[in-house]
Amino acid sequence: MSNKDQIQRFMFDQLGARGQLVGLQESYQEAVSNHDYPAAIQQLLGEFMTAAALLSTTIKFDGSLTLQAQGDGELSLIMAECRHNQEVRGVARWEGEQLPSSADFKALLGNGRMAVTITPDKGQRYQGIISLEGDSIANCLENYFQQSEQLQTRVWLTTEPGHSASGLLIQVLPQAQEAVQDVDGWDRICQLSDTLSNEELSRLQNEDILHRLYHEEVVRVFPASDVQFKCSCSAYRTLQAIVSMGKEEMEEIFSEQPQITVRCEFCNSGYEVTQDDINEYLSDNGNNGSHTLH
Questions:
Q1: Helices marked H in 93-244 — which ranges?
Q2: Mean pLDDT, to the nearest integer, of 48-72?
Q3: Which of 88, 171, 228, 282 is deepest in the core (most CB within 10 A)?
Q4: CATH topology of domain 235-283
């Protein structure tokens, strides 16, 4: 079991707790290669993508989980999304020409908030708000689960900027503690997990991490799921977004230029939309995307 581009779930049945390991390499590299991010943002984006992948295992339906933070620091927005089928993407926006490579979580985001949004493909969206009071994403997520969900949770995240990102999450199962006989079990696996170094989390294979930490515990390991970078942008979605601006604004834009060029923030793909594309879309009433944009 490699920790490269995989989510590895495991369970402590006797302790009423579960865990996930996530490793992102090619998926993370593709996300950061689309932009000229400073090293500090590459690091934070890796942590956000890893955290989104860790939390996505809670989705029991087709849909996506988005982790997004906005603050008053130089990093105005950072967002990562992971779908139920482990398709992950991420993006960041920052102010200024250059950031110090050592800029930390608080320095980058300042005061603000983080949101966890679960969006089913069919059904109602759910959003939880997290204050940026901790010293790291991991700390903020732990506080969120403890205060909002009443679930004891520990999170470890690490990134080798530009190369890979990795994470570990362990969490008490809802209502499971009432039936657990080993009352010290949770504290014990937390202490064991705290002995894992960032280098081990980044470099060791999943099976070696699990053996290294929990070889004296009873651990049930599930088959790993592959993770890949994938953006949901498309020419048709771009066209829909432009049409949603309204007729007057579109007419004003096309009076000044023959086409509108839109570039995806996530994957840097570019789409060009002409007035003919708009006319064709409107004549079809937007009911299908069979036509091709230029």
A1: 105-109, 137-148, 185-194, 198-203, 206-214, 235-243
A2: 91
A3: 88
A4: CBS domain Like (3.90.1280)
